[in-house]
Amino acid sequence: MAAYGLYTHIQSNKRRSIALLVGLFFLVYVMVYAGALVAEALHSRASLQFIMRIAFRDFLYALPWATLGTAIWIAIAYKFNQKMIDAVSGGEEVTRKEEPRLFNLLENLCISRGITMPRLKIIEDPALNAFASGLNEKQYSITVTSGLLASLDDQEIEAVLGHELTHIRNGDVRMMVIAMIIAGVIGFVAELVFRSMFYSRWGGGWGRSRDRDSKGGGAVVAIIIAIALIALAWFLSVVIRLALSRQREYLADSGSVELTKNPDAMITALRKIEGRGELPGANSAIMEMCIDNPREGFSNIFDTHPSVDARVAALVKFAGGHDPGPLDIPEIEFEEAPDDESGAPADGPWGHGQTQSNAAGGATPFLPPQSPLNPGGPTAPNAQQGPWGPSRKD
């Protein structure tokens, strides 16, 4: 895939994303109308036509308030979204002094494309995963797990950082966060409507105050329609979030190869991460932002990411990479280890008192030294020129 084609596809994907988000915002109004329909049906024995007409009038009255409420919700999420994500994921910001090698890998990528360097955060977890988050340059951050740092070499970590940096470059992160915010509004309104409905039902409030139409009988049908609208809005919000997520992973993989000129590193990183990315403390919204989401939906319909096999196949086809197949890596364990005669835990690269050990025993050094990357240098004898630069054959 040539650079022109890649960027053309990115621009097209951005336009589709904006259209999808506009549609997602429209679903909020569908939920408001469904709520008005339920409210009228619970207090009326009128005909269906009468209930729907009065509910639409209520909807028009509520429209500006719904818009204002949604705007306030988005403003709060815009201000505090990163703090909420960190609270859920357990990510802790690290400095250059604490993680010099990780900072250098990301900084080199940012300098090569003139990109403002995002913050770096680490989750203390043996899982292998990473994600980018934030809504603007002041908030953008890339979070990686300590397990990822322990299991991947420098070139593979650089590929993962390039993947997440591409999400930021392409505006994927902003779109995903906004989509999750609006989806949260939809979930909140749906819960509010159902709670009010069941409260009225068990409180004996059905059909007690509005008997203005002698035909009657439309309340039950109106409630069924409202429930169907709520279910449809929720389902479409999920589908839209999946549409935003799936296609972007292919683009981010390609963007990583464009930045690093190393498709094999991206492929081996995906193979190592495959099936090892579950973050127990993270909710589904966080997992949707990760480089790999091992949580599968019903018959793969609700999967947020394309399979690793599909992503690797795309890299092999378009970037000239080579697939080593599924990889086995030593299991990383975190344990307390004394550092001196007092028996006090040692300070490791991930914080106080944590060391790493593999299945075979013994300590694993943090980010073991690798041969330096030199994209502009001479091509190795065993390299093959691909659309983004040389790739190794071995």
* Number of extended strands: 10
Number of helices: 10
Structural class: alpha+beta
Order of helices and strands: HHEHEEEHHHHHHHEEEEEE
How would you describe what is shown here?
This protein is α+β, with helices and mostly antiparallel strands and 394 residues long. Among the domains are: 3-91 and 172-319, no CATH class; 333-368, no CATH class. Helix content is 56%, strand content 9%. The protein is built from ten helices and ten strands. The chain has helices spanning 3-42, 48-89, 100-113, 146-151, 154-169, 172-202, 219-260, 263-273, 284-289, 308-319, and strands at residues 92-93, 119-123, 130-133, 141-145, 333-335, 347-348, 351-352, 355-357, 383-386, 389-392. The strands form four sheets. It has a four-stranded mixed sheet with strand order 1-2-4-3, sandwiched between helices. It has a two-stranded antiparallel sheet with strand order 5-8. The radius of gyration is 26 Å and the shape is elongated.
